[in-house]
Amino acid sequence: MPKEVMRRTAADNVYLHKDFHGAMSTGIQYVHDRYGEEAVRDYLRQYTDAYHAPLKEDVRQRGLAPLKEYLEQIYEIEGGEIEIAFSEDELVLRMAACPAVTHMREHGYQVADLWVETTRTVNQQLCEGTPFAFELLEYDDETGRSVQRFYRRAS
Q1: Which of 82, 94, 138, 150 has the fewest CB atoms within 10 Å, i.e. is most exposed?
Q2: DSSP assignment, residue 11?
Q3: Entry pTM
Q4: Domain 17-152, CATH among 3.55.50, 1.10.357, 1.10.110, 3.30.1380
Q5: Over the stretch 83-104, which tens digit does the pLDDT of each residue have?
Q6: What SS3 state is found at 33?
Q7: Residue 131 φ then ψ, to 5°
């Protein structure tokens, strides 16, 4: 029988990182317990500036359209049910339940006390230095259900 060789790369697989959220939650809780709430926010601002730098620059250049594209893509990958109302000056995201919170609860991970900051602080920092601002209009700690608003700052 001839030997068969299958060659695959990570790019051949469906990208899914749900267990990342459990690890991040554990890390956020650790920072919160040892260094306080502001340390968690500082960490998330640094993370956002590093990880989301290309998206932030795209928002500076093209407005809210790249953010809409990013949110649609990430929630499709994560399996989240979202609705987006979009215009040149405003993007409102309604999420029935956060896929990360759902995954963590289903698998017994602790959801960090400040998990909401992965939405609030990250999105506020994403808007920093752009013509846009962010506000978290609604958030449910149990499910992660939320209403999020990105809007053009007053000139």
Answers
A1: 138
A2: G
A3: 0.88
A4: 3.30.1380
A5: 999 999 999 999 999 999 999 9
A6: helix
A7: -75, 5
